[in-house]
Amino acid sequence: MYRETAKSIILFLLVISSAVLTYMVWSYQPEFSQVDTSLDSTSNIGQGEPVPFNSVMRAYQLIWVDGDNVRGTIEENAVVGVREFLDGTEIEGIDVYNNMDRLDPAVKENGDEEFLIVDYPSEMPSKSLFQVLGFTYEGTLPDYSFDRIVVDIASPQVTFYLLNESLDRVAVAQTDIDSAYLLSIVDEYETSFEAYTPVITNQQTSNNKTAIYGPEDPGEVSIENFLSTQISIDTVNSLLFMEDEASVSQNEDVYVYEGENNLATYNTETYNYVYTNLDESQTSDRNPHQTIQRSFDFLNSHIGLSQDHMLFDYDEEGSESTYRYTLNGYAVFSDEISHTITTKYGSNALFEYERPLLYINAQIPSEESKTLTRLEDVRYQIALNEEIDLQKVSKITIGYDMRFSDSQTELNVVEFVPEWYVKYDGEWLRFNEGGLE
């Protein structure tokens, strides 16, 4: 009897302890510190839907000069947003002059100047500009290229002054835009502007219409981190080679794909892919506007661009169009990873196509930032460097240096670090401790 009673007591205790343990497991809350593990999606580099031409044919900064008050912005909603209100504008006349004497915007009644400056990273065909703006002109537009527009808003009607990169020619275009109307549009984006300052590097940049402009004191700029993914090389080859079967060979980090009419190489270290159409030659007699349009149509039909790409450069001699990725309004550069998309057009079709096979698909939260020096200090340090000719500096802007994160994992984390970039003797170089590299 006692034995049965003991067994009942033990069984009862086991049931009670089991119930207590079950409650403790279900009610337990670990005391972890709160960690942000969210991933923000972002547009892919070279993957997605077709994009409109006016999203890639755009300026990199807009400057507003009103007397001594100089402000500017790189925010796309302002740089691109202003022009969206100008569609349907009529060009009443346009003339090209082989000197800068005609660069003479009006002044206001109080004697102050007021004008806008729209800066492009390199020379662009004026025909492409007017196509993007939706301007109409009864005559024939001149074959003229520019990299800066000075917009006179002190006169009753807006006049565009299109300056070439050498600053020795100007095209003057009179429009039917009311200056007060354009100014009211710019006013709507006033909060996007920050203090800008002009710097002088040579005789050509010695006035407020031709000077180099940039943020006066950018201070801390965020460092961004993203996950990256490789684009399938087989998919790209199938789109370009079509039914042409290719043989594959390898030389260290470079794979070579060779068909009867097509050739491609892929560097696994830099993610750089280059395709060549063996049936085409590089020579072309098309004008820059036509070549740029054809390169854009090709890339769009192959889903080669995203909304974040910008037509960054055009080389007329080689019929070469270069598109650069942008992040937060800043152009992206890299010595480590392929980051530009380039096309070269021949007489009848595409001759060469170069692009990265890496795209960005998710942002990793980060609170890191980098403090950038003042623009005037950048100019001063360059001037002190005996190995650099300050007169060869034509542009200075902030960009992102894209590199793989130092704390690299199998996730392929790509880091975007803000830096000053200088266009020196036609080449974009990173400013680093008084030097250019």
Automatic annotation (TrEMBL):
<protein>
    <submittedName>
        <fullName>Two-component system activity regulator YycH</fullName>
    </submittedName>
</protein>
<keyword id="KW-0472">Membrane</keyword>
<dbReference type="Pfam" id="PF07435">
    <property type="entry name" value="YycH"/>
</dbReference>
<dbReference type="InterPro" id="IPR009996">
    <property type="entry name" value="YycH"/>
</dbReference>
<keyword id="KW-0812">Transmembrane</keyword>
<feature type="transmembrane region" description="Helical">
    <location>
        <begin position="9"/>
        <end position="28"/>
    </location>
</feature>
<keyword id="KW-1133">Transmembrane helix</keyword>
<feature type="domain" description="Regulatory protein YycH">
    <location>
        <begin position="4"/>
        <end position="428"/>
    </location>
</feature>
<dbReference type="InterPro" id="IPR042274">
    <property type="entry name" value="YycH/YycI_2"/>
</dbReference>
